[in-house]
């Protein structure tokens, strides 16, 4: 019998996508499931962005695009980085990819080799550790619990660095926790990293605009580390464009050239139509971004308020993104009839099958005491979902 490669065999399937699929299967059977497992805005792509895509079709942008993306899009990204982040890049430092997920993977595959270490703060997005495996690197997990708002300290970072450390993955605002690093916190990390100039910082900033504490802070703002930083961003979250699949890396030229070379061999340039839509996203009216951010903040406040009434659920107040990541281990060891809850996976499955709410167990995020749920859905859905969760948890004895 033919076997898959060791590379593939070592990978875990995406827990978030698995829970989403399971909820879809129950829905297909007629079960009224509220899906809080997927990190996807429930808003439609703004009209001016859709119009740009329609125009691109009419203007026959139906041919291969340049591998790193169209020049007008790369220039729009350069302008965005200057306007919003006060960061100076040139168009040849920008590589546009099929989503920020590909951009993260591109950088890892370009800088990490067999046995190289990558520091991954936990809780982490599920795909980071799997991408490091793909690159044949070694994950070095640095744990930051709810008591420190899920953010690592400079001392923790320093302690994790070895001669084999090649990269640090830093996600702010964070998926899955919603935590946001302040300028002072990033400065502390930057001071450590500046002493180790061979370490590449993969700064995942895809949730930049879903931020409830004011201006987004990027670790690339510190001159002593800017040449070590590869910023990852895209259009999915801020512009409600998840299905358009456009992300980018803004990086030192050597990393950008490496990503260009890699992408040229395995995907080439991303969708021509989606790129033209993304030009309109970055260069057009930004009021839609703020409208969605305000809605997400209202939902955050609603969900935090509702969850405070659930006994045994310990939570912090997320400062960005659209996730709540409470500690729920007080329910481990309890039962519902013959069903025993041993861990986060059991609890997530129980909430899905008995409470009809899809969440994701924290184990896949490196936080086995926690559950993640997305509040990127309507107020009505959230009120009903939290009521169901509360009722289902109360039934555990």
Describe what this molecule looks like in 3D.
- It is globular, with a radius of gyration of 21 Å.
- Helix 4 (71-85) runs parallel beside helix 10 (272-283) and helix 11 (287-307) packs parallel to helix 13 (379-394).
- Strands 2-8-7-6-5-3-4 form a seven-stranded mixed sheet, with helices on both faces. The chain has a three-stranded antiparallel sheet with strand order 9-14-13. A two-stranded parallel sheet has the order 1-12.
- Strand 10 (335-336) and strand 11 (339-340) form a beta hairpin.
- It folds into two domains: 6-44 and 288-394, Alpha-Beta Complex (Aspartate Aminotransferase, domain 1), CATH 3.90.1150; 51-284, Type I PLP-dependent aspartate aminotransferase-like (Major domain) (Aspartate Aminotransferase, domain 2, 3-Layer(aba) Sandwich), CATH 3.40.640.10.
- The model has no long low-confidence stretch (mean pLDDT 97).
- The chain has helices spanning 6-9, 15-28, 47-58, 71-85, 100-111, 126-134, 154-160, 183-193, 253-266, 272-283, 287-307, 344-353, 379-394; strands spanning 34-35, 94-97, 117-122, 138-143, 165-171, 200-204, 229-234, 247-250, 323-324, 335-336, 339-340, 357-358, 360-361, 371-374.
- The chain is α/β, with parallel strands linked by helices and 397 residues long.
- It contains 13 helices and 14 strands.
- The relative contact order is 0.17.
Helix and strand arrangement:
Elements: H1 6-9, H2 15-28, E1 34-35, H3 47-58, H4 71-85, E2 94-97, H5 100-111, E3 117-122, H6 126-134, E4 138-143, H7 154-160, E5 165-171, H8 183-193, E6 200-204, E7 229-234, E8 247-250, H9 253-266, H10 272-283, H11 287-307, E9 323-324, E10 335-336, E11 339-340, H12 344-353, E12 357-358, E13 360-361, E14 371-374, H13 379-394
Helix pairs in contact: 3-10, 4-10, 5-6, 5-9, 7-8, 11-13
């Amino acid at each position: 019998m033919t076997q898959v490669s060791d590379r593939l065999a070592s990978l875990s399937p995406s827990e978030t996508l698995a829970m989403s699929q399971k909820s879809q299967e129950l829905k297909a059977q007629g079960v009224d499931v509220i899906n809080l497992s997927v990190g996807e805005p429930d808003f439609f792509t703004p009209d001016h962005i859709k119009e740009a895509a329609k125009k691109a079709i009419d203007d026959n942008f139906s041919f291969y695009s340049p591998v790193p993306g169209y020049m007008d899009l790369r220039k729009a990204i350069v302008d965005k980085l200057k306007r919003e982040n006060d960061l100076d890049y040139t168009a040849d430092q920008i590589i546009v990819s099929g989503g920020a997920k590909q951009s993260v993977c591109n950088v890892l595959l370009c800088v990490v080799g067999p046995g190289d270490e990558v520091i991954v703060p936990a809780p982490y997005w599920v795909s980071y550790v799997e991408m490091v495996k793909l690159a044949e690197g070694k994950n070095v997990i640095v744990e930051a619990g709810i008591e420190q708002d899920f953010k690592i300290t400079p001392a923790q970072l320093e302690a994790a660095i070895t001669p084999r450390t090649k990269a640090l993955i830093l996600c702010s605002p964070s998926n899955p926790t919603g935590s946001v690093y302040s300028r002072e916190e990033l400065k502390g990390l930057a001071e450590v990293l500046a002493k180790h100039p061979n370490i590449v910082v993969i700064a995942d900033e895809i949730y930049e605009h879903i931020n409830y504490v004011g201006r987004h802070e990027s670790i690339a703002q510190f001159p002593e580390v800017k040449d070590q930083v590869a910023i990852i961003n895209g259009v999915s979250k801020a512009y409600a464009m998840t299905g358009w699949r456009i992300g980018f890396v803004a990086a030192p030229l050597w990393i950008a050239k490496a990503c260009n070379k890699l992408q040229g061999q395995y995907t080439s340039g991303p969708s021509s139509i989606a790129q033209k839509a993304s030009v309109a996203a970055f260069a057009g009216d930004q009021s839609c971004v703020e409208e969605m951010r305000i809605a997400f903040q209202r939902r955050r406040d609603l969900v935090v308020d509702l969850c405070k009434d659930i006994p045994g659920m310990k939570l912090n107040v997320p400062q960005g993104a659209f996730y709540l990541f409470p500690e729920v281990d007080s329910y481990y060891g309890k039962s519902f009839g013959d069903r025993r809850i041993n861990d986060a996976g059991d609890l997530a499955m129980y909430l899905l099958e008995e409470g009809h709410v899809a969440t994701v167990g924290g184990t896949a995020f490196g936080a086995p005491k926690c559950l993640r749920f997305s509040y990127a859905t309507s107020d009505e859905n959230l009120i009903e979902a939290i009521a169901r969760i509360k009722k289902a948890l109360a039934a555990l004895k």
